Amino acid sequence: MLILGGGLIGLALAHELARQGRTATVLSRRRSEAAGFVAAGMLAPHAEGLQGTLLALGQASLARIPAWVARIESDSGVACGLRICGIVVPFVNAAERDAYPTAALGEPLDRSGLEREIPAIGPSWRAGLLFPQDGQIDNRRRLMRALERACVHRGVRFEEGCEVLGLVTDRDGGTVATTPQPLLGARDGREPIDAPSAQLTAVRLRRADGQELTLPCREAVLCGGAWSARLLHGLPVFPVKGQMLSLQGPIGALSRVVFGPGTYLVPREDGLLVVGATSEPEAGFGEGLTPAGQRQLQAGIEALLPAAASWPPMERWWGFRPCTPDQAPLLGEGPIAGLWLATGHHRNGVLLAAISAELVAQALLGQDRGDGLLRAFHWSRFS
Ligand SMILES: Cc1cc2nc3c(=O)[nH]c(=O)nc-3n(C[C@H](O)[C@H](O)[C@H](O)COP(=O)(O)OP(=O)(O)OC[C@H]3O[C@@H](n4cnc5c(N)ncnc54)[C@H](O)[C@@H]3O)c2cc1C
Questions:
Q1: How many CB atoms lie within 10 A of CB 309?
Q2: Tell me, what DSSP letter sits at residue 337?
Q3: Coil, helix or strand for 301?
């Protein structure tokens, strides 16, 4: 099976397929641009206030994560830094807290409860919700590397520096069906999708040494993250840029994740505090940090945990979330026969990797249990 894109979702799927005895080849343009290396690693279906089928998908994934991580750790020998440490969402008053979409699934906190959970929390927060069932994983330093090693252990083939240029179908008479598109900015899902009658016959690719070739294949999975619509014109996936930074704090200064409006603080075990994130759909694929984005994060730190504003900054980075119009992923069969989709995970791809890999692998291997979860995330909901 060809996996188009070697980010978090492509790796998770390749690992799952290989575990089930299926050969998998991952074509990856640039490992370092994957949002899997950018994310804060929150596992937060409740703290993020997800609703409906997306909440159900997130909860199903959260339940699978301990066993999923154990398999990756066993195959790779790398500890992934999974901690179900609980996440606190602070509010300026109790009315806002009680109106939060997942309020009924958390423990309500008053100001003294907030101070108990987050001893140095800023003075403007008067209420909160504690979600002890949510947590975090160290995706940037550990999980991505562990997944790569676990894939190698299971015999997955990698081709790094290999760009997929286009998909070839039996309707194209052997020419490229869709070519990489120039930047079009945000899409709204109303644009045309290729008709589902065509069958995938090949992918066009350019290897790191510049060689271009057409690789025959009748099945592939599109795991191209924020860039997915460049390969399948009209797919409703667009980039939402996010800027991040990290601070080095004292070990144990914060035991819970703090998920504030516009800024969150994710304490790793070694005292590194990962701070996120801006949300900039207007930036398109514009690269780099901006002073305004970094100022926003700094203001968020000062409001949530004033003491942390003086901790030394260690790193600053950015990346692109693969967003869809309803902010939920596209999973399962795609609009071209033989082309499967595992993309569009927006701000919850780390959380959703375990269930996405499981559901798409099941469908690919003809083991779909038909419980409806996969169907709810079919691309045709936008057609
Ligand atoms: C700032 C930020 C914070 C986030 N925080 C969280 C969080 O706390 N919790 C959470 O659950 N999620 C979080 N996310 C979301 C999560 O990172 C993404 O949903 C997830 O990484 C998406 O995985 P993916 O494999 O689809 O895309 P990516 O990880 O981006 O991988 C896509 C890969 O496809 C490759 N590719 C693209 N086009 C081609 C091509 N034509 N040929 C070959 N290769 C190609 C790219 O090179 C890239 O490596 C965050 C994201 C961002 C940006």
A1: 14
A2: B
A3: helix
Which neighbouring-strand residues pair with 109? 128
Closest CA to 342 of 357, 354, 327: 357
In this structure, is the dihedral angle defined by the CA atoms of residues 188, 48, 244 and 225, taken in order, positive or negative? negative
Can you spell out the DSSP letters for 243-284? Answer: EEEEEE--TTS--SEEE-SS-EEEE-TTSEEEEE---BGGGT
Burial class (CB in 10 A: 0-12, 13-18, 19+), 223: buried
**pLDDT one-digit tens code per residue, 149-208:** 999 999 999 999 999 999 999 987 544 344 233 323 333 434 444 445 799 999 999 999
State in Å: Cα 109 to ligand 1 middle: 34
The CA distances from residue 75 to 11, 21, 153, 218, in Å, are: 13, 14, 6, 29
DSSP 153-204: HTT-EEEET-EEEEEEETTTTTS-SB-PPPP-----S-S----TT-BEEEEE
Distance (angstroms) between ligand 1 centre and the Cα of 196 equals 26
Contact 15, 36 (CB under 8 A): no
Question: Is 204 near ligand 1, meaning CB less than 6 Å away?
Answer: no
Q: Is the CB of 322 under 6 A from ligand 1?
A: yes
- Name the residue with tokens 């559901």: 359
Burial class (CB in 10 A: 0-12, 13-18, 19+), 46: buried
Paired tokens of 28: 């990856």
For the stretch 49-64, pLDDT in tens is 999 999 999 999 999 9
CA distance 35 to 196: 29
Whats the size of the chain, residue-wise? 383
The pLDDT tens digits for 117-161 are 999 999 999 999 999 999 999 999 999 999 999 999 999 999 999
SS3 content of the chain, % helix, strand, coil (to 5): 35, 25, 40
